[in-house]
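To assess whether the prediction recovers the assembly geometry, we first specified each molecular entity separately, as shown.
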Amino acid sequence: MTTAPPAAFSEDRALELAIARVLTLGTYVSVALLVVGTLLLFAAGQSPLDPAPVLSPAALLSDVVALRPAGLIWLGLIGSIATPAARVLAALVGYVRLGDRVMAGVALAILVVIAAGVASGTLAS
Amino acid sequence: MEVGLLMLGAGVAAGVFGSLLGLGGGTLIVPLLTLAFGLPVREAVGVSLVCVIMTSGASAAVYLEREVANLRLGMVLELFTATGAVVGGAIAFLLDEHLLAGLFTVMLVYVSVSMARQRQAAEKAPAIPSDEATNATPTDAPSEPPPAATRATTAVGRLSGPGYTVRRLRFGAAGSVFAGILSALLGIGGGIVKVPLMHLAMGVPLRIATATSNLMMGITASTSAIVYLARGGIDPFVAAPTAVGVFLGASVGSRMAHRIDVRILRWLFVVVLLYTAFQMARRALGIA
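The predicted structure of the complete assembly is given in tokenized form:
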């Protein structure tokens, strides 16, 4: 006879599984974009050591739609870099739902630090 | 295209060996890109951070599914690694290229010595990984869940897990800031600091410390990578084939791990890392 785990333990487990799904999805979608982008880069005869276009949010969508290597590669890179932050966002939502204010605060603080990283990099560039 | 295929192949090799030996992507990718392809160290670090995120993402998911990683502890500590990463990202763009190469040389020598000592101690006790595991699909994680346990009601108590109690949280937080700074400066996941910190100083079992470090690596490296991205420090054309190669290599390596006797490979790798450290030292001194 097994004892049912406490409710809070089960809810933590559900959150961990949800976060695992976010990580898996984000990683594999990013890898897929990078694979296609790399193949297009090779097909175009371009060398990775050629000067690469800078990231332009305005041109990103049109580059992706036109299947330009740079667009797909930038989208894959942004996806991979954003996946851990998406995992923290999922944790924030989960801990708010669980009523765990301490962990929700920790998740929020991590997102604030990430935003500070974006701000410091952007301001310095 | 030849250069692209070579980068892809280099990424695959780094992923396979990194996965077999428990090394992070940065330890291998930065010297490869710098010494073999002539990239500046800072640019190689930016690419390496992307590789670290990619390999950590899939493996961290598996560790969470198998209940090996401690999510709560990982999130608390990654608040500090992320802070360190922002600081380190800012410092990295102020440092001279030669100094970065010098720091990397020190790290390579440290990892080589750690691996050599692991080799000697391997027969007697489970070794402490010299850096974060990069297995895309970990095969060494226990598949059975831990016994159902009641959770402590205090905030700090809830960071502990079944069978262990987390201690010295403040020390862990300070060490995590240092791990974040190193990650941003050298393009590594920071496992060389985080795993011993959690295991030896905070009382976390080695396997859980390794898995939790792997989970934390994503946030640590992505915070560093965001700073590099915003400052134009990531070359997309180099990053794409390298990251795809590392991801594929880590997946293959994790499947090979249980079939290969890594003791000889580890010894060989100590020599390779020391040779790489010598080459990086020459670059640091401006004679390469």
